[in-house]
Amino acid sequence: MATIAEYVEARELAKALTLREIRGQYKGSILGWLWSLLNPLTTVLVFSFLFAVLRAPAPVGDPSGLKFYALYFFTGLVPWNFFSATVSGSAGSLVNQGSLISKVYFPRAIVVVSKLGAVGFTSLMEMTVAVVLLLIAGNMVLPWLPVIVLLLVLQSCLALGIGLILSVANVYFRDVGHFVGILLQMAFYSAPIVYPIGLVEQKLGADRLWIYRLNPLVDLIEAYHHVLDDQRWPSFGWLAYVAAWAVASLGLGVLMFNRFEPRLAEEL
Amino acid sequence: MSAPSEPAITVDHVSKRFRRYMVKNQSVKSALFKRSRGTYEENWVLDDVSLDIPTGSTYGLIGSNGSGKSTLLKCMARILKPDKGSITVNGRLSALIELGAGFHPELSGRENVYLNGAVLGLKRREIDQRFDEIVSFAGRQVSEAIDQPIKTYSSGMYVRLGFSIAVNVEPEVLLVDEVLAVGDEEFQRRCHQRFEELSSSGRTVVIVSHALSTVAAMCDQVAWLERGKLSHVGNPQQVVDSYLTRLDFGNAAGAGGPASPARALPDVRITDITLDGVGRPLDHTTTELGEQVALVRSGQSVRLRMGYETDQAVPTPVFALAIHTLDGTLAANPSTLATAMPEKVDGTGVVELEVPSLMLVPGAYTLGAAILDAGGEHAIDKKLRLVRFEVAGADPGEVRGIVALNGRWGGSLLGGSGSGSGSGPGPGAGPAR
Questions:
Q1: Are residues B27 and A173, on separate chains, in Cβ contact within 8 Å?
Q2: What is the pLDDT along chain A (268 residues), one digit of tens a residue?
């Protein structure tokens, strides 16, 4: 089991592996990292088109008054992509770095952390684009940026914990990686990304909405919508609930990772 | 050397167990249904190994494949965790188990130097300081291509760059596994130099290798592992020699087994191999291990003889002899492939090779034999390195290499047949290339 001091010692390696991931990803492609922006933008385009065809009303920002479906979708999609890419990337990370793990010693969680770092870098760029678009649309989001940073940190903890668990599980059972893909696809529609939360409220009734909100992803994404689209404070009660999930996930992840870490080199 | 301090590495009763899966369940489904992760057998790759590696020493680990030496090295490097016992390391450790670990093919050589350096535990600042040295050590080819993606490198360049980073890490304890044998001779020479520099500056170097002559020459101490147990520890030459002796016996005992068992080859066995002097009997000498072995004068006339026996008649087998140096280099390998032989061989018999002049430089050698099928492609029986013998020199001026030319020096200085001008076609006086 690696000690905290070792992780501090290995921060340079974490940085190097993160850079390796970021630089290696789009090497040799002409558009480079622009691809990482084109991808979510295409998704937005497709869903906006669908929304328009279905003649669904765009959610209205309260109190900002923003009424623009594509932007609503994009502000939910960016944090979702961050979560989803971290979780699925972490799941395969130890297996993908198998040759490194069986040849060199370093605190193994660095692999998962650097995955988070690389995905986080892409997400930050996407978030910057989102902020610029919102500013153009007339939402003064700049004063809210500290809250966004806080949300990103919260979300990183949640995703890292899950990633740590899945990365180890995938070493022992290679199905985990495939399974995660399916689960994430379902999770995408379980949170208010494509649709506004109001739609669920209508169907479920306000007094039973809490059932829907038990999924921590719901209020995590909703918090981004509140801050970026509506420009108001998110529900602190539910945010505390998300934070509890994040802490529990990280705690469990660290516990499980440490338990299996010593045998990783021979299992890979 | 300073006063005896703490050992650099203390290996304390270390055991390591590997599971070899007969059926490995890597899917959830099979794990759920069979309630296990597969059937496996456990074997102890390391069994209660204890040793101290003194600070500042160069230490060799030898042993045959599967003896556990690489596993021990990986345990020292903390890549693997011992199941029993503990390993204590004093000082910063760097392990060279694979060159260029973590290299990304799409990134440039420059970016990969930083990446691999970080993998080996260097800070960015430290790599900055060493960057020029690393690149120049790797050679001109690499330094010209340092900003090209590493996937465009030849395998030689790749390895040279990897090695260059690794030896420039300057750890207090360096573990090296089998990577010495890389690159051309010029590069190898520089590598050796670098290892010597490291050890003379008080670093501890632990080397796992099959290159026994290198180990014997470089190391201060050698440990020999056999089937996970520590067999001998001590003086490099002695341990290497006793290892080689054991290797011979091991081969003799298991002979016939590894010689392509699937093929239905006719059955001919080597019964014995001997070495005699022609004209006069050979002298004997005693090895460091107290064995009596034959002593041949370089250039002496000898007769090599192998006995064979068969169960039934065998069509034209090929008989071959092999002389190896102690580090495993094949020095001579005469065979009857091109010699007219009887149509078939039956019963017992003897094949002899008379050598008018055994042209070997002084040193220790082994004699072995093999019987091959008619085409000379497949060994029917093989007993390599069975008989050890030593060669003593006739000319003290000729002790290196393998072949002793036993020639006679001449030229103007020696009053021989030279032209007298002093610039005759003597050695080293040819036209410059």
A1: yes
A2: 567 888 887 888 888 889 888 888 777 777 777 887 888 888 888 888 888 888 777 788 788 778 888 889 999 999 999 999 999 999 999 998 888 888 888 889 999 999 999 999 999 999 999 999 999 988 899 999 999 999 999 999 999 999 999 999 999 888 898 899 999 999 999 999 989 998 898 888 888 899 999 999 999 999 999 999 999 999 899 999 999 999 999 999 999 999 998 888 888 7
Of A20, A28, A265, the CB nearest to B79: A265
Q: Cα–Cα distance between B50 and B12 in angstroms, integer? A: 5
Question: What residue numbers bound the domain in which A218 lies?
Answer: 4-267
Predicted-complex ipTM score = 0.77
A32 touches chain B (CB under 8 A): no
- Chain B nearest-CA residue for A28: B106
CATH of B9-248, one of 3.40.50.10140, 3.40.228.10, 3.40.50.300, 3.40.1280.10: 3.40.50.300
Instruction: Tell if the pTM clears 0.80, that is, is over it.
Output: no
Please calculate the CA angle A211-A215-A217 and round it to the nearest 5 degrees: 140
* Mutation choice for A interface testing from B19, B26, B83 by most A CBs within 10 A: B26
Q: Which residues of B touch A23 (CB under 8 A)?
A: 104, 106-107, 111
**In contact, B70 and B225? CB cutoff 8 Å:** no
> With the CA atoms of A90, A254, A262 and B180 taken in that order, what torsion angle do they form, in degrees rounded to the nearest 10?
50
**Cα–Cα distance measured from residue A228 to residue B122, given in angstroms and rounded to the nearest whole number:** 42
CA of A35 to nearest chain B CA: how many angstroms apart? 17
